[in-house]
Design brief:
alpha/beta, Rossmann fold, Ribosomal Protein L25, Chain P, seven-stranded mixed β-sheet, 29 strands, elongated, RNA-binding
Amino acid sequence: MSDANSKPLNFLEQIIKQDIDSGTTTKLITRFPPEPNGYLHIGHAKSICLNFGLAEKFGGECNLRFDDTNPAKEELEYVESIKRDVAWLGFRWPGEVRYASDYFDQFYEWALHLIREGNAYVCHLTAEQAKEYRGWATQPGKPSPWRDRPVEENLADFEKMRAGEFDEGACVLRAKIDMASPNMNMRDPILYRIRKVSHHQTGDKWCIYPSYDFAHGQEDAIEGVTHSICTLEFADHRPLYEWLLNNLPVPMVPRQYEFARLELNYTVTSKRKLKQLVDEKRVDGWDDPRMPTISGMRRRGYTPASLRNFCDLIGVTKSGSTIDVGQLEYCVRDDLNNVAPRAMCVINPLKVTIRNMPAGETQTMKQPVHPNREEMGERELPFTREILIEQDDFTEDTSLSRKKFKRLVLGDYVRLRGAYVIKAEESIKNEAGEIVEVIATLVEGTVGENPPEDIKPRGVIHWVSATENVDCEVRLYDRLFNDPAPDAGDKNFLDALNPESLTVVKGCKGEIGLQFAQPEHAYQFEREGYFCIDAQYSNGSTLVFNRTIGLKDSWSDKV
RNA sequence: UGGGGUGUAGCCAAGCGGUAAGGCAGCGGGUUUUGAUCCCGUCAUGCGAAGGUUCGAAUCCUUCCACCCCAGCCA
């Protein structure tokens, strides 16, 4: 890293560097702690890149740990998807995946410890009563009548809770802190509640489960996490996080730091809302290519490199920010432009017959796989008397200026990419008046050569042989929401759903080499965009391509 | 309202008392057999506002304003 060109350290990197330089931290340990109650989305990608990235950068380690303290909302399917997504992004965790539930025995012991020390009690207030007792922002809460019971009674009741002798909601274990604290989290927060449901990891072993607050700091301490990084909304919990650590015989004391979560415009990043889209079948599952989930983006054709680069570019701060999706799209194009082999695919075909090309003859054109990367080799394109071009690439309107329409115009010339310059001689229409065929002539000697001085092609268009090609379906995606802030204020995000977020086009014709396309492998369809095989919809007989993202288009809105 | 957090360009974001980095978007131009890529140039007398300290303030002090978060037996 050169001093002049290296990226400035973000605030967390600065803190960590200081801790390492001063010897406060000998080895950095972080963790990514998702709750397995949904699929990971782009916002999680930021946290993943941050936590794992920090560990990589400072020679430390980052654990993958499931915060599975609420079995009512969690599922094994989510656990599996999360592991897959983190690994796909290219991150590795040391040893086995961790679970908060791995430590339930220890948490129980620590709960007993708090009770014995007079720092926790079993409270039999109902939820409604507890809410009343908690007070309001400007008014302090009042102590629960159960607050000062003898230790022995608390011990006995807590044991009954564990043994299942109380119904759900009958009572909870609370920390005894300060009912007058201006921080609501310190007004005797709940440590354990009764949940008579089986857990995806521990089965029916427990019917009481620790709260987030009673689990998180202790998990960090058990794992030796030095820097526990979470999002801003947990800043209010930090005093409680520290109180528990200071009142429990934990092996070490981690520090919590908060950063701003990622928000993207035209996007919803809320597991609850994404789950609603899935449950109500507004989309085709958590991995629908329109979803901002990691699995959806993977299926759409986004690459790990593009996501990681994106997370790198947006930075890490404490100021709430909404990033323009254009920034994400830039990262995807940037990576794909570099790595994607080029191919031609005609999405809405229009037949062109080359009059001066003999029927039955096939010429083989050669094109580089990538215009800027010779090492990727060449591909072969069969050129025949009948070819297909994009319907939008032909017009009879001869009044269009060369600047406004750089494609094929009746009576004018255009370059067929990687092949001849042709001239449109006439067009043939059906009864409905639609153009169904163009008759053209090719200009001899223009393969790889410029045409004579007097012939000026208007532009370059893509094409494919009408007889030697591969049939495919193309799925064109647009943003899922039309509103830049679909869930702002009291808006119903479903109202902002874009009815045209998916356009399925069948009967597209791709160049012959596309028959060997592999799932998740990106191609650039020249002049169209980046595409990849959809692993779910494609099978032996049908090829289905997802459009990951279109090419940058700096002209369509100007003409 | 009580507490917590944040305000630097259309969107992000450096800056840590010495005279506003960088990226995205935009705009102008060049190269180009992809209207792509690439290249060049341009884009804040200004840092939420007002005062103050200082030779000097986005950086320090004071007051004010705006926005976000918490007030679940969710995380």
